[in-house]
Fold this sequence. Notes:
Belongs to the FliM family. With 310 residues, this protein is an alpha+beta fold. It has helices spanning 8-19, 25-50, 97-107, 125-143, 163-168, 198-202, 206-213, 216-228, 246-250, 299-309; strands at 56-66, 78-82, 91-95, 175-184, 189-197, 235-238, 268-272, 275-285, 288-296.
Amino acid sequence: MNTTASPAEPRDVVIERLLGDTGEPEKVLAAARRLAERAATAIAEAINHALPTSVFVEVGEIKLGRMTDAKAGKSNQAMTVAPTKLSPDGLVMTFDPQAIAILVNLMFGGDAGRDIAPIDRDLSSIELGVVSLLIQDVARAMNAQGPDGGLGVKLPAPDAITGAMMKKHVFRDGPSARIVLTVSTMASRGTLTLTLPQRVLVSDRRPAEVETSAAPTTEWRSRFSDELMRSTVRLEASMPIGRMTLGELTGLQVGQVIELAENTQSNAVIAARGKTLFACEFGKLGQNYTVRIRRPFDSTEETIEGIVAG
Length: 310
């Protein structure tokens, strides 16, 4: 039996392609941004736990699209489609060739300060194995987004696929949100793209609740964590060596040995940018000298101890 499509059906398809499942693309984008901010920190911690050298994970571009967009890019990227509680394709993770090169280089002890060229050939089994290993860390990080289990990615996540196998994968056509995270060292930068169906993204109601109940300090820390928490500071450890008169100080000569008090090593401090942070003590581990943090620095307590000590 032949059926005639309603004139409204093609119109609805066009509208759905433009506005997504909800008809409110701004709300979908806002939900994607909140997820991206939470995910970047969690993914960085998870990946860095597996690598000998740390990488930076930052939020890049966020945009709406179609689920098939998850395969966009070079044929030698690596992709996995992880099922979640709500969808068999609830989270698609795609590593570009530059990110793969960076992660493989660091996994095998490469120099993080060296500029790593993107892979320009088919991925090897070792490279796919490294990505598949890190995919599990990313999936666990996405599940650790809150007390209700985050996205509910089913573990273990499928291994990474690439090339013809990736291109043959068929997605259910539907609107998606794409979150592009940059994975970088000081010299190289690649991308990890998270693609989620909009129906999965908007079903997550936790962001609004978290933002409503969060303390102001927590809210501002989350806003600035991407920029400020990655900034580097120079740490300085110092220990007191005693007191001298100005005359004795001017009489010091090259090669002269200054005797240290018995408790000098245990009265060291760590400072950054002129501010003392911790009371610590010097030690030695094997052939390396160490500094062990004993407690946060309390200027009032230190002043009292100095007075008592005379």
